[in-house]
Design goal:
single chain; 710 residues; alpha+beta; 10-stranded antiparallel sheet; 5-stranded antiparallel sheet; 19 helices; 32% helix; globular
């Protein structure tokens, strides 16, 4: 893998390469595709496909999967009547980060002749309904050529169980072809998803050079056109694919006329990318690898967010894979959303709108769990319903509700969006507070309460009680609910009455807030992760794992729950989110207590450790963990990028480690400030961010810093 300032590239042997296909994902946020090759001769219908945000199909009643859609990146070629491409090829892939153009180059050999292939494709950022591809086939000698181009309709899903240790080999078809229609220069395939009944159309038009249309083909796995040509001059075919669905909300989606061409559409998309880069780019001088890696991080965060659609969120693997059924986790609010908040506030608002619109489902989920108010699900589908099939995890991971509230508050405080607060966020604060009121258990003989049967971000440590991270964020939630009730009483009395708020209820929230315990060690005074972590069996990390692959690949979950080890940052994560709540001494003590016990079995962990270390001047540790995070996918650090896709939460947290950690971006009394801790070899760091409707540019250097309004 080679990283340049505005591109990544790699050479490989063979048609299939899961790792490179993940890393070379390209998209426009609404849709995208992995970096597989159009002319791959061996069908991999569960891996070669297309993803569109919000397109889910039903596996069984109430349980959905993110649909791997039929792909129009599908072709094969005959040379002098013989099928080409069945031997291994040497492939050179490039991804232009400035405009999202993916290029694959290789040579096919057949019947003693050679054919150079260059395929270029991009998903338009200016018109998010378009996938555009150009294939140039350059003969090395005279030949008769037949080119088959179409849609691979056999694409399917390979559902992965919630249990990370289990594998599955059974595929399932989640789309049905309802209709096909052909015209002189293209065709359309109409699809519908299983159970959810979402309609998708793939409308393809072609422009050709030195090729003529000879007919159509149709079989069990695909359908399309057959083109023919003869000679040694390059054969060129351009295809423009328009992909509307029945659930579209993005206003940028629109059909194009027949006079389109590849270069014009690319320029239009590049212009949109250029505008986005003006607000999102990070420039590092002195560390070329960090500079390039951060640009890749930013590119993929943009390419995996449907920025103008409030009906979708971002799955754990974005648009790059169906891992975890494509569901939306707390990852989005805590790790990913801040990038959009500071570089594209509209996109952040839409992510938050997804959660507020899903409030009815959260209320239903709370009722199903015999509680009041609203409880957000651990794994949310497109409609906000719970998809977790592991009852203990789904039931005990309570902190997701507090995470949603925390993120909503972060959005409101950063943007000053009072309309969103009044009409959307406030009611979530209140319904979530009602959930917490019904979820805590009074402690006999005291005025305290306990949060029983819970798990924090750690996810190991067994089922416990009074997780510090959760309890602190719940207290924040309860304060916000009290403030929201007062605000509605003053400024929107009808809403106050519709929500059924009473002064007595608000007083109960205040009482609950002061009754919640925050666990501390009675001897040292250090913060504890929860009530039981200190009781677990000590073990050396080296006895559980070597290297960076997850220990659960060789140690069962039951055993891991009883060792005094941490899957990912928990207390340390809390301290990065609410740094002003803790003293420097408390943060350093927590680092000494918990950092040596962390297995980093989750891809969420490295960047959070980098962030806390950078915020607190632990520069050796900050740089060590930052490199792990920044190159997690680019170097396949945990050896799961190919099998699971890109890790969007790590990308988001890496951005935070750079901007909030090394860059020291903070806000005091409604004013942005910089308290940087630049690595010694970073001569400078420059980035832009939005705050309260204004855009700022930070220019950080080893000897001075500047912050100006743009």
């Amino acid at each position: 893998m080679k990283l340049d300032k505005w591109s990544i590239s790699a050479e490989s042997k063979g048609w299939a390469d899961d790792f490179l296909e993940s890393v070379f994902f390209t998209g426009n946020g609404r849709m995208g595709a992995r970096g597989y090759l159009t002319f791959e001769p061996y069908p991999r219908p569960e891996k070669n496909g297309l993803f569109i945000a919000g397109i889910f199909g039903e596996l069984k009643l109430g349980i959905t999967d993110f649909v791997n859609l039929p792909t129009p990146l599908y072709a094969w070629v005959n040379i002098d009547g013989h099928r080409a491409g069945e031997d291994d090829v040497y492939v050179y892939r490039t991804l232009n980060l400035h405009n999202g153009l993916f290029t694959g180059e290789y040579i096919l050999h057949c019947a003693g002749k050679s054919l150079q292939i260059r395929e270029e494709r991009f998903f338009s950022l200016s018109n998010t309904g378009l996938l555009v591809q150009r294939v140039t086939l350059t003969p090395c000698e005279e030949m008769d050529l037949e080119l088959f181009c179409g849609v691979h309709t056999d694409c399917c899903n390979l559902p992965v169980p919630d249990d990370q240790t289990q594998k599955n080999t059974q595929t399932v078809q989640l789309t049905e072809v309802r209709q096909k229609s052909f015209s002189d220069n293209g065709f359309t395939v109409h699809l519908v998803t299983n159970g959810t009944e979402i309609k998708i159309s793939e409308n393809i038009t072609y422009h050709m050079e030195n090729l003529r249309c000879r007919g159509t083909f149709e079989n069990d796995i695909g359908t399309g056109f057959v083109f023919a040509g003869s000679g040694s001059a390059p054969f060129v075919i351009e295809q423009c694919v328009f992909l509307p669905t029945s659930r579209d909300k993005d206003p940028r989606i629109h059909e194009v006329g027949s006079n389109w061409n590849f270069d014009t559409l690319l320029r239009e998309s590049e212009s949109a990318w250029s505008q986005r880069w003006q607000s999102a780019n990070i420039q590092i001088e002195g560390d070329r690898q960090a500079d390039a890696a951060l640009r890749y991080v930013v590119f993929e965060l943009i390419a995996n967010n449907s920025a103008k659609d409030s009906s979708v969120s971002i799955g754990a693997r974005g648009l790059t894979h169906t891992r975890y059924k494509g569901c939306y986790f707390w990852d989005t609010e805590i790790f990913i959303m801040p990038f959009y908040l500071y570089t594209a506030p509209e996109a952040a608002r839409n992510l938050m709108q997804y959660r507020t619109d899903a409030l009815p489902q959260a209320k239903k989920h709370a009722q199903e769990m015999n509680c009041l108010g609203a409880r957000y699900p651990w794994m949310a589908s497109y409609d906000g319903s719970e998809q977790c099939e592991s009852w203990d995890i789904g039931a005990s991971e309570l902190h997701v509700t507090a995470d949603v509230v925390h993120a909503l508050n972060q959005y409101v405080q950063t943007t000053g969006d009072e309309e969103f607060y009044l009409h959307e966020a406030a009611k979530v604060y209140i319904e979530a507070a009602r959930f917490w009121q019904s979820r805590y258990t009074p402690e006999p003989g005291t005025e305290k309460v306990n949060l029983l049967f819970c798990k924090g971000p750690d996810e190991y440590c067994g089922i416990t009680s009074n997780n510090l991270y959760t309890n602190v964020l719940v207290k924040e939630n309860l304060k916000l609910a009290q403030d929201a009730a007062d605000y509605l009483y003053q400024y929107d009395r009808p809403a106050y009455l519709r929500l059924g708020i009473t002064a007595e209820e608000v007083e109960c929230w205040s009482t609950l807030e002061h009754s919640i315990k925050l666990p501390k060690d009675p001897v040292s005074g250090h913060w504890r992760q929860d009530d039981t972590f200190h009781l677990l069996e000590p073990i050396r990390i080296s006895d559980l794992k070597q290297g960076d692959t997850a220990s659960y690949n060789c140690v069962c979950f039951d055993r891991l729950q009883r060792y005094r080890v941490i899957k990912q940052a928990d207390v340390l994560l809390l301290m990065t989110r609410l740094p002003n709540m803790f003293t420097s001494e408390e943060k350093l003590a927590a680092w000494k207590d918990f950092e040596p016990l962390c297995l980093h079995d989750s891809t969420l962990s490295f960047a959070s450790h980098a962030l806390l270390a950078a915020q607190n001047g632990l520069m050796d540790a900050a740089q060590y963990y930052f490199k792990k995070a920044a190159f997690l996918d680019l170097r396949d650090v945990m050896e799961n990028t190919g099998t699971e896709g890109l890790h969007l939460a790590c990308l988001g947290e890496t951005w935070q480690a750079a901007v909030i950690g090394f860059g020291g971006l903070t806000f005091q009394n409604g004013v942005p400030e910089l308290k940087p801790h630049l690595p010694p070899d970073w001569k400078s760091m420059r980035f832009r961010f939005f705050y309260r409707g204004k855009q700022y540019e930070a220019d950080l250097r080893q000897d001075h810093n500047s912050l100006r309004e743009v």
